[in-house]
Amino acid sequence: MVPKPAPKPPFATAPEIEDGKNLIAKSDCLACHKIAEKLVGPAYMAVAQKYPQDQNSLNTLSQKIISGGTGVWGTVPMAPHPAIAVADANKMIKYILTLNSSDTPIASK
Description:
Layout: E1 12-13, H1 14-26, H2 44-50, H3 55-67, H4 86-97, E2 106-107
Parallel strand pairs: 1-2
Helix pairs in contact: 1-4, 3-4
């Protein structure tokens, strides 16, 4: 009998996801983004569909929140948010990327 490989750890824990959702609600993000439809910037669900739940996406998108950017979703620039800590940006991105599917494994710790 071949042992099963250890399960892959979840991309985000339930507390990280909840913290990310709350951080977004308290920020100015919702002035330009909605969950399911494009406003000024892309819908969060479109971001979740475009980027995989991995460390590279987490790093790239967290830096976009902090430094701003343009060109990925059109010509309208995303304003930088230098006052947002990397740890908070990571939680925001973890929340956003878990919007892609209902079967995303989430740890309860």
